[in-house]
């Protein structure tokens, strides 16, 4: 009796329809899930539409992401949250580019405990920490550049990597 009263509709449907629980909302849920999936794919496609302008957003747990930098690439690193466990981005040169340059237009990393911004080019030099008064503007690399951003009470950050030195185009001379 209790089950019939509390779950009256389901009990009635099972009894009348032979144990099959059919509800008109099942079709609506399926359509909503399909529309949601389509919307997610569409947003992802639109935000990544131009491969020469990749954008990496630092979130709380942005694991190591790799961005290829070609001759026409303008890669952007952004952060607008105040707490990041670890955001690691590696910028690698593609063919057609001999050197890349890293610079930050919005850089507000006060020196202090719990805030770290490291950037370094691949090679024997030590990892360098940057903060207000010592910005990473003009950092160059001929191979790979690694950036690590983490901490608490962080400020907004916008940095870009561009190809500074394009590889010369090789052309074959026509033989006469």
Q: Bin the helical content.
A: 10-25%
Hey, roughly how much beta strand do the residues contain?
35-45%
Count of DSSP H/I helices: 3
Largest sheet: 5 strands, mixed
Contiguous uncertain segments of 5+ residues: none
How many beta strands in the DSSP annotation?
Answer: 10
Taken in chain order, the helices and strands follow as HHHEEEEEEEEEE
Average pLDDT: 78
Strand line-up in the sheet with most strands: 1-3-10-5-8
Shape: flat
Compute the CA-based radius of gyration.
26 Å
Specify the structural class.
alpha+beta
Q: How far apart lie the N and C ends?
A: 100 Å
Short overview:
This protein has 176 residues and is of the alpha+beta class.
Structural summary, described in words:
By secondary structure, the chain is α+β, with helices and mostly antiparallel strands. It is 21% helix and 40% strand. The protein contains three helices and ten strands. Strands 1-3-10-5-8 form a five-stranded mixed β-sheet, with no helix packed on it. A five-stranded mixed β-sheet has the order 2-4-9-6-7, with no helix packed on it. A hairpin with a 6-residue loop joins strand 6 and strand 7. It is flat. The model has no long low-confidence stretch (mean pLDDT 78).
């Amino acid at each position: 009796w209790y089950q019939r009263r509390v779950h009256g509709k389901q009990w009635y449907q099972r009894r009348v329809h032979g144990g099959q629980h059919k509800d008109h909302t099942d079709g609506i849920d399926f359509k909503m899930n399909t529309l949601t999936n389509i919307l997610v794919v569409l947003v992802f496609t639109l935000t990544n539409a131009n491969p020469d302008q990749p954008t990496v957003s630092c979130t709380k747990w942005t694991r190591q992401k790799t961005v290829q930098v070609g001759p026409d690439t303008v890669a952007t690193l952004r952060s607008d949250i105040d707490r990041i466990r670890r955001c690691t981005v590696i910028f690698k040169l593609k063919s057609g580019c001999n050197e890349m340059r890293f610079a930050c237009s919005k850089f507000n990393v006060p020196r202090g405990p719990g805030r770290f911004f490291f950037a370094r080019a691949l090679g024997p030099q030590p990892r360098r920490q940057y903060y207000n008064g010592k910005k990473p503007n003009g950092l160059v690399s001929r191979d790979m550049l690694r950036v690590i951003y983490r901490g608490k009470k962080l400020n907004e950050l916008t940095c870009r990597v561009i190809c500074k030195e394009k590889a010369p185009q090789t052309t074959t001379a026509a033989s006469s």
